């Protein structure tokens, strides 16, 4: 019993001792783990703090400030080495404005528009220097590295004056300075408050050639020295401009005119028309002879449908008195002329002529009587083919109603249908074909009368009289040009019994 008890006691003590040791080991491990966790956490916190500090220092923004304002009268050009940006390099939200390639093109340009004015120098927080620039055409403005542009020492060079330094300025663009001399010079147009100096003579006082090759003259008005400045050499002329001559001639013509009121003989209280006339041979004392006045009046009545006065001086009255062969009329005078409307009308002759060769006249045209008749109304026929001797023949109206494409007389056909005649406007509307309707320059005479056209003769064939209409004739079976002509003023008419 004792032995067993001791043994049990021994085992119990052993178990207790083991348990105590085990408990002490567990406590030590827990303490060690807690200490290790605390050190790791502190180290990470410190590392994070250090990293954040360095990151903050690295992310500091690039800034810039103006270091000096530059002389704006200086001129710069691109070197082609750098681009232009909206802000200096490295600054937040910076954008490309002009590429390096485009700046290289500007470096080789001869246009003053591609020059620059640099008006500020700036320095970034990294110590890099930039210019703030604007192009002469004001289309480019931004920042460029200082090596990207270079100063031009002499934007202008002395040029030769014209051999004759007295002449006329043909533009209203007179500048304070030549374009290209400095920024803004090309837009510095002087304001002369609407003064018209186009007829004034100017002196050329100086001449320069600007960058790009344009030459400018410094000019001053001989009549008004306050009118002066720079103009392009192309805007200077030794000869008075045609526009000035025409204006002066118009003004002189108006000053020398006589003012005519035309009244109808059938109703003397009725004004037919009014005109300003300039008779020939104005006398040195500012008067006109009555014969010259009568001739001017007859010329003004051409194509009006009224009779000429034919030197009937009594038809002219000045201040209520009829004139006679000894009368004289002052320039600027108001006179009255009694005119008589024509009433008798007649039909105009017409001839349709065919060409052997499509590009030239045949001088021995014959007539034929084989045409299919055309139908137009009597009113249309009378309005186009009849009129008084002195009424105007309106060829433009005649052409649009009868000779235009698709109109009745544009194409004519022979009775048998074998030949088609097509109107040739190019040869009809010439002095050679219709000398009473077209002048020697082949320009339409607007006041040609029915009598003129009825009596005219073809310039190279006196047998053809009246309105001469040229046609190209084509044989519908062979397709060849025909050696024939058609005539509407003889036994054959295109319009039945009209």
Sheet with the most strands, sense and barrel status: 6 strands, antiparallel
Number of strands: 30
How much helix, percentage-wise, in residues? 10-25%
Task: Figure out the total of helices.
Answer: 8
Kindly list the characteristics that best describe this protein:
24% helix; 8 helices; single chain; alpha+beta; 5-stranded mixed β-sheet; 498 residues; 30 strands; 6-stranded antiparallel β-sheet; disordered N terminus
Can you walk through the features of this model?
The protein has helices at residues 2-58, 100-107, 242-256, 290-301, 378-385, 395-403, 425-428, 450-455, and strands spanning 64-69, 75-78, 84-85, 96-98, 116-124, 129-135, 141-145, 149-152, 156-158, 166-169, 202-210, 215-221, 228-232, 236-237, 258-264, 267-277, 287-289, 316-318, 321-322, 328-330, 334-339, 346-347, 350-355, 386-387, 411-413, 419-423, 457-458, 461-465, 467-475, 486-487. A hairpin with a 6-residue loop joins strand 12 and strand 13 (228-232). The longest helix has 57 residues, at 2-58. Helix content is 24%, strand content 28%. It starts with a helix and ends in an 11-residue tail after the last strand.
Concise synopsis of the structure shown:
By secondary structure, the protein is an alpha+beta fold.
């Amino acid at each position: 019993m004792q032995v067993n008890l001791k043994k049990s006691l021994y085992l119990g003590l052993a178990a207790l001792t083991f348990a105590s040791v085990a408990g002490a080991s567990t406590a030590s491990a827990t303490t060690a783990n807690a200490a290790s966790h605390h050190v790791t956490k502190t180290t990470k916190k410190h590392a994070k703090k250090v990293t954040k500090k360095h990151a903050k220092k690295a992310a500091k923004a690039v800034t810039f400030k103006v270091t000096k304002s530059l002389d704006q009268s200086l001129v710069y050009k691109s070197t082609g080495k750098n681009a232009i940006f909206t802000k200096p390099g490295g600054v937040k939200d910076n954008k490309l404005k002009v590429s390096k390639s485009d700046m290289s093109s500007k470096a080789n340009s001869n246009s003053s528009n591609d020059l620059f004015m640099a008006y500020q120098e700036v320095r970034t927080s990294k110590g890099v220097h930039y210019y703030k620039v604007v192009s002469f055409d004001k289309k480019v403005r931004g920042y460029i590295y200082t090596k990207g542009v270079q100063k031009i020492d002499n934007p202008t060079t002395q040029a030769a004056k014209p051999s004759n330094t007295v002449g006329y300025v043909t533009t209203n663009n007179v500048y304070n300075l030549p374009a290209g001399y400095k920024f803004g010079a090309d837009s510095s147009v002087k304001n002369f408050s609407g003064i018209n100096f186009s007829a004034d003579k100017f002196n050329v006082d100086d001449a320069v050639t600007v960058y790009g090759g344009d030459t400018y003259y410094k000019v001053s008005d001989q009549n008004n020295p306050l009118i002066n400045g720079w103009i392009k050499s192309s805007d200077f002329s030794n000869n008075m401009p045609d526009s000035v001559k025409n204006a002066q001639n118009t003004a002189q013509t108006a000053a020398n005119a006589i003012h005519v009121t035309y009244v109808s003989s059938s109703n003397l209280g009725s004004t037919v028309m009014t005109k300003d006339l300039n008779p020939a041979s104005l006398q040195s004392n500012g008067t006109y002879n009555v014969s010259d006045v009568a001739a001017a009046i007859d010329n003004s009545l051409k194509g009006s449908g009224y009779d000429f006065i034919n030197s009937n001086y009594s038809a002219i009255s000045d201040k209520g008195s009829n004139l006679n062969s000894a009368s004289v009329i002052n320039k600027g005078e108001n006179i009255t002329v009694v005119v008589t409307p024509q009433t008798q009308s007649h039909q105009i002759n017409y001839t349709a002529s065919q060409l052997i060769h499509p590009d030239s006249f045949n001088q021995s045209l014959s007539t034929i009587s084989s045409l299919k008749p055309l139908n137009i109304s009597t009113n249309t026929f009378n309005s186009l083919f009849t009129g008084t001797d002195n009424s105007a023949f309106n060829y433009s109206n005649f052409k649009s109603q009868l000779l235009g494409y698709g109109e009745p007389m544009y194409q004519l056909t022979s009775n048998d249908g074998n030949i088609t005649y097509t109107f040739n406007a190019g040869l009809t509307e010439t002095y050679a074909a219709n000398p009473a309707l077209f002048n020697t320059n082949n320009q339409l005479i607007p006041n040609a009368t029915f009598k003129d056209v009825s009596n005219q003769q073809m310039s190279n064939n006196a047998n053809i009289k009246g309105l001469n209409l040229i046609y190209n004739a084509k044989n519908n079976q062979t397709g060849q040009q025909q050696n024939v002509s058609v005539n509407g003023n003889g036994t054959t008419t295109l319009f039945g019994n009209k």
